[in-house]
Specification:
The complex is a heteroheptamer. By secondary structure, chain B is an all-alpha fold. Chain F starts with a helix and ends in a 10-residue tail after the last helix. The complex binds sodium ion (NA) (2 copies). The site of one sodium ion (NA) has 3 residues of chain G, from helix 2. Chain E: One of its GO terms (molecular function) is antiporter activity.
Amino acid sequence: MNNLLVVPLIIPIITAVLLVFLREQIMLQRIISFITMIFISIISFLLLNFVQTDGIIRLDFGGWIPPFGILFVADSFSLLLVLTANVLTTICLLYAFSTIGERHEKMFFYPFVLFLIAGVNGSFLTGDVFNLFVCFEVMLLASYVLVALGGKKRQLRESLKYVIINVVASWMFLIALAFLYGTVKTLNMAHIAQRVAEVGQDPVLTTVAILFLIVFSLKAGLLLFFWLPGSYSVPPTVVQALFAALLTKVGIYALIRTFTLMFPLNQDVTHTIIGVMAGITLIAGCMGALSGRDIYTIATYNVIIGVGFILIGLAVGTESALTGAIYYLIHDMLAKALLFLLVGMMFYVSGESVVKKMSGLIQNYPLFGWIYFLVMLALAGIPPLSGFMGKVLIGQGAIENGSYVLLAIGFASSIIVLYSLLRIFLASFYGETTISYEDRKPIPRGAYVAFVLLALSIVCVGVGAESLAIYVKDAAKTLMNPSIYIDAILKG
Amino acid sequence: MIAMEILEWVAVILVLIGSIISVISAFGLIKLPDVYTRSHAATKSSTLAVMACLLGAFIYFWSHDGYVSIRLILGIIFVFITAPVAGHLICRAAYRSRVPLARNSGQDELKSILFDGDIAATTVQTIEKEKSEENQ
Amino acid sequence: MKINDVILRTVVKGVVFIILTLGVYLFFSGHNAPGGGFIGGLVLGSGIVLLYITYDLETVHRKMPFDFKKVAALGVLLATGSAIGAIFFDAPFLSQTDIYYTFPILGEKHLTTVTIFEAGVALTVIGTLVTIILSISEDE
Amino acid sequence: MTIEIAIILIPFIMAALIPLFNRRLQKSFIGWVVLVIPVSLFLILTTYIPRIAKGETFSHTYWWIPSFNINFTTYLDGLSLIFSLLITGVGSLVILYSIFYLSIKESLHHFYCYLLLFMGAMLGVVFSDNLMVLYAFWELTSVSSFLLIAFWHHRKASRAGARKSMTITVSGGVAMLVGFLMLYAMSGTLSIREIIGNVDEISEQTLFIPALVLVLLGAFTKSAQFPFHIWLPDAMEAPTPVSAYLHSATMVKAGIYLVARFTPVFGGEVVWFWAVTGVGLLTLFWGAFNAVRQSDLKAILAFSTVSQLGLIMSLLGLGSVAVHLGYSTSSVIYTQATFAALFHLINHSTFKGALFMMVGIVDHEIGTRDIRRLGGLMSILPFTFTIALIGCFSMAGLPPFNGFLSKEMFFAATVSITNLDIFSIASIGILVPVIAWIASVFTFIYCAIIVSKTFLGKIKPDILEKNPHEAPVGMLISPFILIGLVIAIFFFPNTLGAYILKPAMSSVYPTFPATAEMTPHIYAWHGFKPELFMTIGVILVGLLLYRYMKHWIKIYRLFPQKWTLNAIYERVITSSENISESITNRYMNGNLMHYFIYIYVSFVVIVAGTFLTLEAFSWTPSLDAPVENYELLLVFIMIFASCALIFAKSRITAVLLNGVLGYAIAFFFVIFRAPDLALTQLVVESVTTALYLICFKYLAELKPEKTSKRVKLSNGIISILVGSTVTLIGLAVINYEKFESISVYFEDSYKLAGGKNIVNTILGDFRAFDTMLEVVVLLIAGLGIYTLIKLKAAKKGDADT
Amino acid sequence: MFAQFLLNLFLALLWLLLVDEPVPQLTTFFTGFVVGIGILYVMHRFFGTQFYLRRVMKILYLMLLFIKELLSSSYLVIKQVLTPNLQITPGIFTYKTSLQGEWEITALALLLTLTPGSVVMEVSESGDVFYIHAMDIEESKESIIRSMGKFEKAILEVTR
Amino acid sequence: MKETILLLALVFFMVAIALLLYRVIVGPSMPDRAIALDTIGVNLISAIAIVSIVLSTKAFLEAILILGILAFIGTIAFSKYIERGVIVDRNGDS
Amino acid sequence: MESLMMILIGVLVTVGTYLVLSRNLIRVILGTAVLSHAVHLLILTMGGLKKGAVPLLSQSEGPFTDALPQALILTAIVISFATTAFLLVLAYRTYKTNGSDDLQELRGMSDE
Ligand code: NA
Ligand code: NA
């Protein structure tokens, strides 16, 4: 059964490679990639439930016992994210089928998406820091290709910046890894945690931890988000959605793992810095969202706001805050994917990205408009949609911990989120339309299916928060008690 | 035993000679007036230097460990074959990209053949390229 | 005057054999000496690239009509396939096995699944390296 | 499923059904179908009246998110009942009115859907015992209000009004949520009743006052209290039935509900007293004062609503004193303010609802609401005039209408509060009746304006041209029912008091014995008390001022247009957008160099900052391995080559120098006993160099950097800082020898994995997974490059999204 | 020529089979090879061609020639480098060879390049004219051309 | 003694490399640089051979051969680049 | 030796960073190359230098130098190669479509 753990990584890879041979058969590519995603979604769901009964599952690759080999570790936290990532990628694929176009499809679009998801799943599941780096690179390389897919002028320019910054970020990751190895002489996360605990996270180790903070902040868009707005607004819509949903989340995942499992012992320093960074990120994100005059800018800065908000949960660090952070992560992945799909569709139907140049879309596309409205409310944390539970729990944690400044910034940000998205709704969806119903550019059915499915998932995550609660609570419990994780890896 | 000792010393001396030749040829690359003459230094003396060293190493491993390294022999042969090719190619490239001969050069029987026909067409272009690539 | 590459081409013809042999040697010697799939693949790839440099795209493509993208993909399939094989024997993913088998003429040989894995690695390296060089060189 | 939950759910279910059956339903029919809902709900709710009057309460819990204590706990007591009756009662009348008011051409299904959504949400607010559920419904009322205000969204003003109301009320809601979370942190429960039960423990905690303030923010924004009232006049862009319903009778009273509901929790606090009373009075005055200058009938009513909400709010503030004093025979008197608040709440809904409907009729029939263009309508719209007259009289506090009763009680309460000697009332308490009186004068004036400017005087000729006539009967039914109530309540106030208000009082004062005389008998005439003189004063001064309005109206010009709250709000929004934009554009300028500067500076500040602050640096060079001369030379060569790289003027030189570095590193790999590395590095370096050369065909030659000396210098400093950070940390780390490396394990590679090359065994076996993935990375890069080159942007009509 | 070599290999293999060891040894194979050489030398006139090892000897000679040229030319370069006031006149001259075929031309070019003071810069399109850069054209042109003949002969010995 | 001489030889090679580096940086022409880099590669071969002797290991002998190959390929590539601006021709006509 | 290497690494990082901060695309890419050189050396240094024999069991009895960093660097080298290759192609494609290799000109304000 443990071998199931590698499925979310290996099956997309193998499928992707097979699709390389099926380059010309587009229909077949679609079917195979879709089935693959459904399959790994089911597997991740099964795994998530196994974890509830059997506890943390691990898979020692090649049978090499930790800490010597590489292993995949699945706890509720990682599996929740894997599941969410896979489900939303499945839905995004539906959108892609009807929008991405044959040119892209013949240029290995599906393989790249599958590689991306493989890298993402690997990053969530791995229990080895260096392997995390490698998984990151799988994900990043796929993202490099996807972000430049299409080769438009502006796209290439922004992709270039994205790639260069990420190359430097990966370099910093290696620097951090080098220092980590230089100090604790091991790469297994649980083993690192054990060794760090043994010497009590002395100043040198804390410095190393801070290095990792910088590294993952670059990936997560925490404070160092400069690469994000440009690169998230240029690729094809479905890629934007995947980026918004997945890439920063992997960084956030890594941050949470690092500072709950490996370096949890000097929170005065580390969590304070994270808190300050999260606060600044939120403020900057809010300013960006306020400043935006086009839909892409507004949407991308909302991604940054989301990052800041989730990391308040980490900075606060209490169990309820972490529970909230996990809830919010799941919400943010789904809602941001939907938001970007919608924004891309707005551009598609109107040929415009400036808010003021669009008007009255809701008259021609009522369902489209209402789904936008829904996701807007969800992102603002309006109950009973998906954003609410996470927001409340993070707020609760912040109060327990006395982090009132973060609380204030975080909750104020949700108003800015609402305000900025509302502006789009009022200016672009509401108002008079100049195009008659007959002349409108039809929205492909596949896109609608994706919208509806994601919208449903947002509602379900919000209304059905209780059914997620056992998983999320278990995840938070494991994060709060690293010994559970360590024991599962190193004892037995 | 003594034979081995002597062989080892031979090896070491070969290495030392190689290194000295190498320094001299490197010095030649500094001193000689143009790229063509410098290529003489590079393709000949340096090759000799490396061959001496590799031979030294070969002898050393042979005497010290009784190990006959085919790789070293292959290496020697390889360098030996390729060094002149490299010299030839670089000189040709230099000439075709119009790197001038040293000022005190004598006859040049290639110039008329190579550049007469298309001088008008290519000179300007090449010279510009030259300028931009080599303004150090 | 047209460039006459006779010297280069003649020498390269000989040299490529040395390089390719070395590449294969490095590939096989990896488990006990420096080398392995990566370096073997890189050296083999470099050999092919040398051919491309010395000749030209069309000529080499006529003589080696592979789609190197597919070579690379095949390599990944081989590597992942050898890794996944273990699953069917109820061993953890990526478990490698090895046996000592006595062949009729060659004598006792050490056979391991790692070799398949490394072959995959080597193929990928070759495929990718050549794909990259070719794609760029073919660009308008 | 109990009835209470059904009451909440039915409107939602219906709201969901309307869009589904929209096509099957005749448009003229839809309103009638919808009307069934509030009417039946109202009827069901009336059946509760007797039982609740007896002191019963009804509570049921439905699990929603029990893991986090968030559950649907419905709680129906006197307070909820008042509000739910208002919601369903006024709701019925408004829907009935809308059936005639709204043209069949409008998108009625949207309208009724939103309206039902609102009704359900509002019922949810007043029925919820759980704070989070309450919050959920609270925000839903804002959302449905937004949708209704923007109902005519093709109008710019509608959209602006909707945005403003949404922004302000949701912000308040968020503040309230934080307040709720603080209450939860203090009490450990989300149930309002349990919190009320534990007030004593909570009130000592430091978060108590912040929670109080935050909850009040929610209430004030929702109930349009100064200075948050600015959204309400703009919300008048909604269809008039909506204004009547949401923005005067129900939604804006949610804040009142909240304050009443939380009086048992916070009521004892001086902050609460002054905040609620003060803001209420200020709002009362400011609303009335501003209503006078409006020329749009709806705007007058909007400000009037603001003002009346302030009145109710201030009454609740005054009544909270009783909570502070605790139960005693002398303190009971102060509960009368709360009683008056609840009473006026109902009264206001009746007369203000009627007035809005009146304005709707005028607008509907005449086509304008501008009093400057109206006049003399009395003869054309006699029934409407009746509604206006009665409504305005009641609002102005004249008998024989219900407004008179509650206004009198209000005056009484303001006067009696001045007797208290707590909360520094003794010093400034006198202001309370003074402000109340002044505000009432203005109330009188705008009431007079509504009646006279619309219905009295001469008819403007352009109106006559349109040949207007009285509204259809259907439109008159609802306002007449309300007017009827205005009069009925005046004559039978104590029935209302006994059955409706009394149980609500015990919700506000749960600790007070129910037997106490918290439900005073309401008399229309109670002798020559100060309040009577105040009323008479209001009428006299009001008439006088109305008569000479031309002379003093100039005072409004003293308030410069630039400094109105609205202008300030707009300016704050615009300037925060502009400042955000200029700041964001300044640093997010697309210049990669700047991004890198931010990143590197953060890197240095955070990492080196931590490193130095924690004093993590240490260095013991004696532990180092020895250095040979040639190694030193090689290091110098590398340093030299790398520095030369910076100054390289041609790209080939630069690439060659990079190659030199790569080769030198390969040589270091040799020196440091890493054969596989050396091999790989050599090949990769050469291939990379070849790649550079191949790509140079498509790239330009290096140009000299056009950056200024200053930039170069600062870049240089940053680079040196980054480099030294790495070096310093590295020096500290190389001597960190607390653990043995796990690689000792790999030295058994032959036994474990059958390979004698340890590095290769790690790559092929121990860490084969890395290798497998890195092969994937290579493949992605290869395919990616292929894609990048082959897939070029389509020329035009590129349909990809 | 090549047939002789194959035959030699065959003889060695035959030897290996004849000896019939439990595990075949490389040394046995070599012994067989040497035996084969002997047999072939005796028999080579029956083939009507040269004894193939003679060709090998020629190749060895050519290689020695290469090495000698390398040594002497290096000596010359070193001398020139170490001469304080260098007085040389470099230049380019042509040389027409009688050799044909890519291997012959390549070998000659390589030899020439290793010759003291000369580098082959171009080969004409037809492949028979060399353009040679001489370090000191006045002094060494003649000697270069003289040694060219020697080289051509040595190469021909091997190839034909 | 032997080791000292070997280390001395290494120092010599480093000096040679340093001199060649000067040529790489100063040029003046591209072929000059290419020759210098090629020669650096060749000198590194020697240096690796010496280090192998000093460390008494055979592990780096492959590196020697490979470096030889690479220096050769590199030089070809450079000279083609200098001569034609392209490293891999599209077809035989060019 | 370790300290010396740390200083060298520091210099390489400085140079790499300085180049990354350039306006010219090629310089930036070369900067990343120098940075990756530096980090490879760093990883090796972190494993300790000259602490044992070449990690080949066939050549020595041990103690061996730390083999794990070597394996890590190998992976890192390959990944960095893949990235650099992609980056180079992306760079020239950008140059060709945008007509500039100056990152300040590639800010992207003018044409939107
Ligand atoms: Na990288
Ligand atoms: Na590199």
